[in-house]
Amino acid sequence: MLKYRRICSPKPTIKNLDTLQEPTMAQWMPGLIGACCADCAHCRDICPTGAIAKDQSGELEFNYGSCIACRVCIDNCPSKALVALPSIYAATSRDDLSRTYVAGGRGSDTAEKEDHQPKGKSRAIKIFAKSMHVREVDCGSCNACELEIAATGNPIYDAERLGIHIVASPRHADALFVTGPVTRQMELALRKTDAATPTPKLIVAVGSCACSGGLFGNTSVAGAGVDQFVGIDLYIPGCPPSPQAILKNIIKLRG
Amino acid sequence: MALVTNGNSIKDILDMIDGLKEDAVAAQEVLVDIDLPSLRQIASGVIDRLGGSLQFVFAVDERPGSDGFSLHHVFGISARHCFLHVRSEVPTGSLEFPSLTPILPSANWHERKIADMHGLIPVDHPDPRRLVLHEDWPDGLSPLNYDFDASRPVPRVAGEYMFQRIEGEGIFEIPVGPVHAGIIEPGHFRFSSIGEKILYLELRLFYKYRGVERYLQGKSLLGGVLAAERISGDETVANAVAYCQAVERIAGIDIPERAKRLRAVLQELERIHCHLADIAGAATDVAFSAGAAKAAILRERVMAINETVSGSRFLRGVIVHGGLRRDIDNGASRGLLDFADASRNALNELKSSIFDRSSVLDRFERTGALSKSNAVDLAVVGPVARASGIPTDARIDYPYGFYELYPLEIAVRNDGDVAARVRIKFDEIERSLQIIEDALCDIQSGDICAKDTSLPSSGHGLGWAEAPRGLTLCWVEIGDDGRIVNCRWRTPSFNNWPALPYALEGDIVPDFPLVNKSFNLSYAGNDL
């Protein structure tokens, strides 16, 4: 009898994904770490997507779902208080994509060591722990997210060894990876693809456009994110999120 | 700055262009105001007597400040290294302009787009159907007109898109898309085929229409750079360079030598990763997975280098009007040179593993051949044009930045088939590696951004760059407040998409993915 166990790779962990390729800095999302913020509002004014806001209690709120990682706020912060965060923020709800920092205060001294752990939502997620067939739906991205999702399947990241397999039809899919703000002219196709995907299913918003509408979203011809149209199980922001960020967060979510 | 003149006969224009001589290289954009009725005559004169090609047609809504619309036709005159920008006014109260499509097929999509965006009517256009806006868009709403409210949702109306119908015994239609089998962008293809043979292919695109040009109205100059970077992911650098050069030409900014060289390095890195993704895709589409894997590994190496050099795998956040936002330090430069050196062997190995294989050649050769005459008629650009025997490349035809003084030799092949296009891409990667080495070997340290990037006054101008897919063009108009008034884009894919059905004539349906991949067209850049 053949011993299949030897052929299969050991259960992939996040740790061995990290050893594949060291990114210089995760996604270039800004945060307040260690330095003093002068509360000058410059970052809020300059942010092209309005991802930085001040809430009622006077705290600076960074919405990473809207951040397009353009680094304009980091480059232009007069007190050099903004730095790029080394971690990737993904979340199972849109609200969890935000972080608050005390404006005018001193940021935390260390970055959170672990990436934000997306919480498991339903039983469905566990079902796909070892095998997940994915259909990708582009709803108006710039195609960088597509290239990064495609790159997860290349021999470096090799998503297939993690049981993640890209399929040709939503009928065969366990999960949909949706990119782009959902343009008016893709809305129907997205709804149909969603309806054609059998339940239980996972729907993942890949990229900041999908999470919030991004740069071009929220107009008469483009929506303000995929969750306006279909339910989302996981948000992976980034412009675009790296293949590593995509895989890491999928693995975390399904446990 | 553009040279501006009036002229209403082709003779005036010819005289003027003749008078330019060397000056044209400095000007590079010659703006001529003409009367609308003489448009056709002038257009055919420019094509016949100057060897120009119609690259870009757009309209601008000049209301309410002025009367009506202005119409802009941009011809590339590669022999004179300049763009001829012909401007005319659509008379007040009239919404009609003469269509150039009957004499210049390359005007087709441009004019249909203008009809959708502004509600103008191209008179005598052979195919007046909608292009950008789909059938459920209400009549009378023109998204680039000043009176359109871009923040309010547009109601959906009932409507049907009329596909060209090919009828006869044994002919059937195959609808494909917009959601495709692979990880690609959305578009709908309607094949009319007999057996496996394609009789006709109709493209239905613009599912990704995001309203980029509308978005840009009123944005700051920096906001324009960020948007340009996100028009098409794998053309990030080229589109940002095109936009920044337009702004720099308007403002008369001369960027430092170091920035010129580093911009060239970034553009070539982008060309390499775009072409490698394409080669990997072509190998996948002929089921040659080993070759695809090799190309993908090499591409991933480029992406890692991109990240070390710029912090972004797509080289985002580096280019800005006036120069660069961040420098490439000496360590990263050395890494780049090592990479360029080491990649040659890997590239040659990849090339022979693909082209020494009869099973691959059997699919590549004589598949998807685009004839030179079709390519010329449709003003096709980039590697697709060069594979069909047209020696066009913005880096030589309309030299800019580092390429002005660089002795670039472009690769041209004549077969026009998939094999020619893939070979061109290999040739170009080799040259790109050489350009990176040449740009970096004697680079001097210094400023990376012009000190004074303030704008002297309002103005408008063209900007361009050779993207991996070919010439990308944009036109920027800046107002007195230093913000963008209008911005129009024409990425290479917009010119090349209409050529795809012609390349497929006589091919079979299973060849379509391969031919499409070898064209490497961006949906996002096309749809805007």
By secondary-structure content and strand pairing, the structural class of chain B works out as alpha+beta
Parts with pLDDT < 50 across at least 5 consecutive residues of chain A: 1-15, 21-25
Question: Which class of the largest domain in chain A in CATH terms?
Answer: Alpha Beta
**Mass-distribution shape of chain B:** globular
The helix count of chain B comes to: 19
Assign a percent range to the helix content of chain A.
Answer: 10-25%
- Helix-strand category of chain A: alpha/beta
E-strand count of chain B: 15
Number of strands of chain A: 10
CATH topology of the largest domain in chain A: Rossmann fold
For the largest sheet of chain B, list the strands in their spatial order: 1-2-5-4-3
Calculate the mean pLDDT score of chain B and round it.
Answer: 89
CATH topology of the largest domain in chain B: the name is Cytochrome-c3 Hydrogenase, chain B
CATH homologous superfamily grouping of the largest domain in chain B? Cytochrome-c3 Hydrogenase, chain B
Q: Architecture of the largest domain in chain A, according to CATH?
A: 3-Layer(aba) Sandwich
**How far apart are the termini of chain A?**
31 Å
What is the alpha-carbon Rg of chain B in Å?
Answer: 23 Å
Organism (chain B): Candidatus Aquicultor primus
Keywords (chain B): NAD, Oxidoreductase
GO molecular function, one term (chain B): quinone binding
Protein name (chain B): Hydrogenase large subunit
Describe this structure in words.
The complex is a heterodimer of chains A (255) and B (528). Chain A has 255 residues and is α/β, with parallel strands linked by helices. Chain A folds into 2 domains: 30-102, Alpha-Beta Plaits; 123-254, Rossmann fold. Chain A contains 9 helices and 10 strands. In chain A, strands 7-6-8-9-10 form a 5-stranded parallel sheet, sandwiched between helices. Mean pLDDT of chain A is 80; it is low at 1-15 and 21-25. Chain B has 528 residues and is an alpha+beta fold. Chain B folds into 3 domains: 3-123, Beta Polymerase, domain 2 (2-Layer Sandwich), CATH 3.30.460; 171-204, no CATH class; 212-527, Orthogonal Bundle (Cytochrome-c3 Hydrogenase, chain B), CATH 1.10.645. Helix content of chain B is 41%, strand content 17%. Chain B has helices spanning 10-20, 23-27, 39-50, 108-118, 212-216, 221-229, 236-251, 257-285, 289-310, 330-355, 358-364, 372-377, 382-387, 394-397, 418-441, 492-496, 500-503, 512-519, 523-527, and strands at 3-6, 29-33, 53-61, 69-77, 82-90, 96-98, 121-123, 171-176, 188-194, 197-204, 319-320, 323-324, 459-467, 470-478, 484-490. In chain B, the strands form 5 sheets. Chain B has a 5-stranded mixed sheet. In chain B, strands 8-9-10 form a 3-stranded antiparallel sheet, with no helix packed on it. The interface between A and B is large, with 57 and 59 residues.
